[in-house]
Amino acid sequence: MKAWNAPMALEPPPMQATNASGRRPSAAIICSGGFTLALALSLSYLLVARSARRSPDGQATGWLSSRLPSADRLDSLAYRVVAFTFPLWTFAVIAGAIWAENAWGRYWGWDPKENGAVLIVLWNALILHARWCGLVKTRGIAVLAIVGNMITAWSWFGTNQLGIGLHAYGFSQAVEPGLYRYYWVQGGLTFVAAIAAYARRHAERM
Predict the structure, then answer these.
(1) Phi-psi region at 21: left, alpha or beta (left = phi > 0; alpha = psi -120 to 50)
(2) Are the C-beta atoms of 3 and 166 separated by less than 8 Å?
(3) Which of 36, 88, 45 lies closest to 65 in space, CA to CA?
(4) Could you report the per-residue pLDDT of 180-197, keeping only the tens digit for each?
(5) Of 98, 100, 91, 51, whose CA–CA distance to 71 is shortest?
(6) pLDDT by residue (tens digit) across 21-69?
(7) Rounded to whole angstroms, how far apart are CA atoms 150 and 107?
(8) Considering only CA atoms, which of 26, 12, 148 is closest in space to residue 78?
(9) How far apart are CA 68 and CA 127, in angstroms?
(10) Please, are residues 62 and 137 in contact by the beta-carbon 8 Å criterion?
(11) Torsion over CA of 97, 102, 108 and 112, rounded to 10 degrees?
(12) Which of 43, 70, 179, 204 would you label with 14, given CA atoms 20 to 30 Å apart?
């Protein structure tokens, strides 16, 4: 609990600013790009799948959806991106814990940024588990990937806004408006997709 009681750090600790190994931050940046790519693929999947369901021949006909890959292809790509980034992000979290022990004298301190990083691991493990066990279908996987990107954004930026912990040097009031807008948009899309899925299942049972 020491990290929660630590004063807000306005600048990175010296050891963090001169980290000799670039593997951990590089892996985190690559994974964050991967999660963003999975978001784009999932949104594209929802768009193409919706257009294809409304078409008599099952082919996407919209101006944008007709120019995108098929829904099956988009779903496969999104799954592969998550499957690639999950172990890489897990490595980044473990490497970060090892680095934290050398820099701050503890592997884990329940710092908000640390908690966010583990939440990303758990959520992507949930996505893969749901996919492999067939707990949800392709639409559900897409929605989970969208929520996963929201969790990633919170881990990167939202935790800094709390102003507590050893990672609070990233605090910036300029980030808050954009972060709130992002969550409103993504939350709205997730809500609409969930309602559409429920309505479709209800119609199939009638």
Answers:
(1) beta
(2) yes
(3) 45
(4) 787 788 778 778 777 776
(5) 51
(6) 456 778 888 888 898 899 899 989 988 887 877 666 666 777 677 778 8
(7) 26
(8) 148
(9) 24
(10) no
(11) -80
(12) 179
- Provide the whole-model pTM: 0.75
The token pair that represents 197 in the structure block: 């899925």
Q: How many residues make up the chain in this entry?
A: 206
Determine how many CB atoms are found less than 10 A away from the CB of residue 44.
21
- Start-to-end CA span in the chain (Å): 53
Does the CA dihedral 42-44-45-47 come out positive or negative? positive
Helix, strand, coil fractions of the chain, as percent rounded to 5: 75, 0, 25
Query: Residues of 65-98 as b/e, b for ≥16 C-beta within 10 angstroms?
Result: beebeebeebbebbbebbbebbeebbebbebbbe
- What SS3 class is residue 62? coil
Q: Which of 130, 165, 164 is nearest to 145 (CA)?
A: 130
3-class DSSP string for 77-109: HHHHHHHHHHHHHHHHHHHHHHHHHHHHCCCCC
Question: Side chain identity at 172, as an amino acid letter?
Answer: S
* Cα–Cα dist 40/14, whole Å: 36
